[in-house]
Amino acid sequence: MRVKWKPLLISLAIPLAVGGLSALVTRSEMKAFSQLNQPPLSPPAWLFPVVWTILFLLMGLASYLVFTAEAPDGSTRKALTVYGIQLGVNFFWSILFFNLKWYLFSFFWLVLLWALILVSMARFFPIRKTAGWLLTPYLLWVTFAGYLNFGIYFLNM
To answer: For labelling alongside 24, which of 14, 33, 41, 89 has CA 20 to 30 A away?
Structure first.
């Protein structure tokens, strides 16, 4: 398979831009967040941007594989639409959680995100199995984030 550089770079740039904008919008709230009671297994603060950068790169690569695949009857468009929606939900979770401090609502928003990731995976797998597998770490991290989100709600209500 020959690499199509422009679609690859755009595919990587989109989730990185979503993550970068999210970090920019929420950065002023990080000090307040660090003072909250944290649940057990909470990772150190430096790990979050590292993990999210890796996850956004994996998402971008997965979307590139789907975009460049020879898929039948509109399945690519449907798969990438769900993917785009989940990116939007991902972005707004940060605002709901960090800026608005709606911890319980954010947890349910995260459940929505989790479901959308699962639907994205289900739509990616038939087009390119590798693309579906590339979203697996994202699903696992969001599962862990749900634990952290609910723990923060419970410990700080």
So the answer is: 41
* pLDDT for the residue numbered 30: 86
Q: How many CA atoms lie within 13 A of 4 on its CB side?
A: 11
CB neighbour list of residue 130: distance below 8 Å, 6 or more residues apart: 62, 65
Flag residues of the chain having pLDDT under 50. none
pLDDT digits (tens, 9 = 90+) for 88-122: 999 999 999 999 999 999 999 999 999 999 999 99
Q: Which pTM was predicted?
A: 0.94
Determine how many CB atoms are found less than 10 A away from the CB of residue 131: 27
Query: 104 Cβ partners below 8 Å, 6+ apart?
Result: 153, 157
All residues at 6 or more sequence positions from 143 whose CB lies less than 8 Å from its CB, including other chains: 114
Query: Using H for helix, E for strand and C for coil, what is the string for 107-132?
Result: HHHHHHHHHHHHHHHHHHHHHCHHHH
Contact 135, 58 (CB under 8 A): yes
Could you tell me which residues come within 8 angstroms of residue 151 by beta carbon, excluding any fewer than 6 positions away?
38, 39, 40, 42
